[in-house]
């Protein structure tokens, strides 16, 4: 639906406005969730202090909670001071996020001080009652350079601010719905799971010196390596994947009986089959892979073998919660990126498959419209430029024609 990230100093009215507008929206039948920073400081953020790093982590956790509610078709009001501009921009890149700045002067807030917090923050350093690291007094607050809505809560009444906020939300919901074009999901979990123990046993067989760094070094930071179970040349070190080519099993696959079972479960032609390892503290940068959607007659499957909660896989700005042993499809023609913030590598088994009648039956069961054909104008300008950049990396007559067609749209 929509998530509003509030930003404003303590006492500027974030909680009050969130509660007021929540009642108005609920009365109209909308599902509303308030993600209040003060409340979550006592639960999932209770281990965090008030250093810059902890404040950043606090907001990121709240945003993750908010995203889960958005997935449930809720209007989310994220009420937190949110003092840093870079983090607000990081969150605002998601299409469903709007930034609301509650603008109230520090003098006005000190004058109001309903909780007596500013009074304590302004006490002398030696006073045991003094609040330290207080945003706006002894800690930084960066005024937003750009916000989708600015509410002058120091000058206007609570009723006026509430009505402006309500109108803004309603207008943006209408805008989002009127421009919405139904499409198939950008990612989807398949109705099958595999044995984690057997996956990891076969992975041990593949722990050789054959792992090859990904050829596109500009696309990632850290370590991103691969070993092939099925490749064009039949070699384990051949990790290239191009459409409309013949592929052969590699000798390594013959030793991996469970990987072969998984391949056989997919009753369709397979192209490249690989293990992809993303090292600790490594990142695959946002990019698109051309002609890799189910609608293009192709589908790429991911089966996580080793992963954890600190691995973040985003497709089309949405977090895809892949867990070990699960089986996932994703439309990699949409922008996607992966961050491994853990101290351990992440390893996936990936299969590039060709669409056929069997897969159409499977994807229909998962809610796909197999007759759906994407419109040529489905891409935003940013996404179009990403596709052009990817095509330009592999010049060919066909790719040059696709680029020319895209540039005319």
Describe the protein.
The protein is an alpha+beta fold. It has helices spanning 14-27, 37-40, 52-71, 85-92, 106-112, 117-121, 158-178, 196-205, 257-265, 357-365, 381-393, 397-408, and strands at residues 2-7, 32-36, 75-79, 97-102, 149-151, 187-189, 212-213, 220-221, 224-231, 248-249, 270-278, 282-287, 298-306, 311-315, 318-319, 328-330, 336-340, 346-354. β14 and β15 (318-319) form a beta hairpin. The protein is elongated. Mean pLDDT is 88; it is low at 178-182.
* Poorly predicted segments: 178-182
CATH architectural name of the largest domain = Sandwich
> Overall 3D geometry?
elongated
Structural class: alpha+beta
**So what's the CATH class of the largest domain?**
Mainly Beta
Tell me the Rg in angstroms: 25 Å
Portion in beta strands: 15-25%
Q: Count every beta strand, where a strand is a DSSP E run of 2 or more residues.
A: 18
Mean pLDDT: 88
Which fold name corresponds to the CATH topology of the largest domain? Answer: Jelly Rolls
Tell me about the largest β-sheet.
8 strands, antiparallel
Our count of helices gives 12
Give the domain tally.
Answer: 2
Percent range of helical residues: 25-40%
Order of helices and strands: EHEHHEHEHHEHEHEEEEHEEEEEEEEHHH
- CATH-wise, what's the superfamily of the largest domain? B-lactam Antibiotic, Isopenicillin N Synthase, Chain
How far apart the termini lie comes to 29 Å
Search tags:
Rossmann fold; Jelly Rolls
Quick take:
Helix content is 32%, strand content 22%. It has helices at residues 14-27, 37-40, 52-71, 85-92, 106-112, 117-121, 158-178, 196-205, 257-265, 357-365, 381-393, 397-408, and strands at 2-7, 32-36, 75-79, 97-102, 149-151, 187-189, 212-213, 220-221, 224-231, 248-249, 270-278, 282-287, 298-306, 311-315, 318-319, 328-330, 336-340, 346-354. A hairpin with a 2-residue loop joins strand 14 and strand 15.
């Amino acid at each position: 639906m929509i998530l509003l990230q509030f930003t404003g100093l303590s006492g500027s009215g974030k909680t009050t406005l969130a509660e007021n507008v929540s009642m108005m929206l609920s009365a109209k039948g909308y599902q509303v969730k308030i993600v209040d920073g003060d409340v979550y400081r006592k639960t999932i953020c209770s281990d965090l202090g008030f250093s810059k790093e902890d404040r950043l982590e606090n907001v990121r956790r709240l945003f993750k909670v908010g995203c889960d509610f958005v997935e449930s078709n809720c209007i989310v009001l994220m009420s937190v001071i949110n003092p840093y501009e870079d983090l607000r921009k990081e969150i605002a890149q998601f299409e469903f996020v709007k930034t609301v700045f509650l603008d109230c002067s520090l003098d006005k807030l000190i004058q109001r001080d309903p909780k007596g917090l500013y009074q304590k923050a302004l006490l002398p350093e030696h006073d045991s009652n003094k609040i330290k690291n207080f945003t706006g007094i002894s800690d930084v607050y960066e005024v937003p350079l750009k916000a989708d809505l600015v509410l002058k809560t120091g000058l206007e009444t609570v009723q006026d601010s509430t009505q402006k906020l309500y109108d803004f939300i309603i207008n943006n919901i209408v805008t989002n719905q009127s421009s919405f074009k139904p499409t198939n999901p950008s990612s989807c979990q398949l109705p099958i799971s595999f044995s984690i123990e057997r996956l990891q046993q076969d992975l041990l067989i593949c722990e050789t010196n054959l792992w090859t760094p990904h050829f596109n070094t500009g696309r990632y930071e850290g370590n991103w390596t691969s070993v092939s179970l099925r490749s064009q040349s039949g070699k384990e070190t051949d990790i290239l994947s191009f459409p409309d080519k013949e592929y052969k099993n590699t000798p390594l696959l013959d030793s991996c009986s469970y990987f072969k079972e998984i391949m056989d479960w997919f009753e369709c032609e397979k192209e490249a089959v690989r293990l992809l390892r993303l090292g600790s503290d490594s990142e695959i940068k946002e990019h698109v892979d051309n002609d890799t959607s189910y609608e293009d007659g192709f589908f790429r499957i991911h089966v996580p073998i080793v992963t954890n909660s600190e691995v973040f896989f985003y497709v089309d700005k949405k977090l895809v919660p892949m867990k070990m042993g699960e089986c996932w499809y994703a439309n990699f023609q949409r922008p996607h990126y992966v961050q491994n913030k853990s101290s351990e590598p992440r390893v996936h088994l990936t299969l590039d498959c060709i669409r056929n009648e069997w897969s159409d039956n499977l994807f229909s069961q998962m809610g796909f419209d197999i007759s759906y054909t994407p419109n040529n104008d489905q891409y935003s300008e940013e996404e179009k430029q990403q596709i052009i950049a990817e095509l330009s990396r592999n010049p060919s007559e066909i790719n040059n024609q696709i680029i020319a067609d895209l540039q005319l749209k």
